[in-house]
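Structure ticket #2291
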Amino acid sequence: MLNRNIETFIGCETEYADSRVVLYGAPFDSTTSYRPGTRFASRSMRAESYGLETYSPYQDLDLTDAKVFDGGDLELCFGDTEQALSDIRDFAAGIVRDHKLPFLIGGEHLVTLPAVQAVHAAYPDLCLIHFDAHTDLRDEYLGAKLSHASVIRRCWDELGDGRIFQFGIRSGDRPEWYWAKDHTHLQKFTFFGLDDVIASLKGKPVYFTIDLDVLDPSCFPGTGTPEAGGVTFNQLLNAALRVIRGCNIVGCDLVELSPPLDTSGASTATALKIWREMVLCLEKPFIAPETI
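Resolution: structure written out below.
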């Protein structure tokens, strides 16, 4: 007898009730300021994941042993940014209510905002670790408060001073850099000081967002706003695993892969390898909201 063809990320066939980590795609890029295409990231990653081994030689772990549910891609309204963000927020909130860890695949970076809002509602002392090429701290971009260029500023509206830690940043408007000095911890260019931040956040709930353009475009050209001078794959992988191992991660995301901008598939493959290692590392226990 034939069965329906249901495509999931490779190794992510656990039923929702038995899962610890829940993947969901947010195919949205309506506020992209330069080159669009990130709406295709989650779909492309899911399909291309079958070119990836489930086994990680980095961690001696295998996706076939992980408890990960693939919730598929949300159907989002491209003509109404606030409605799209509301739908993401509601979906993430449901995952958190069920005491599972939401892992969002973007999409442009603005999709991080509703995910952070949903997690923050459950974890009032939430902190944010942010890897990116860009500050994303504009108060508005071309008159819009809701933009991928202002997403971390909107997260600051939610979290306030002393809770946002930014690394790898190498691009931004001058006022953003000056504003960051008073309101966020911002490390230019590198992951220097990351271990000290991880130690300072011990026991606190942390949302971890990775804009993949933190990578140098020489190894990751498939993104809408590439910036020279980025980190290498190994540097990003090492830093990401340090964050996940050292922090109580209660939500996370990978954003800003734009598959149409790298038809070789190399950028998608790079994103997938970071994704696999993050998923496997996230299998460690985290503190559910009712016990914090």
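Closing remark: Residues 38 and 258 are 4 Å apart (CA to CA).
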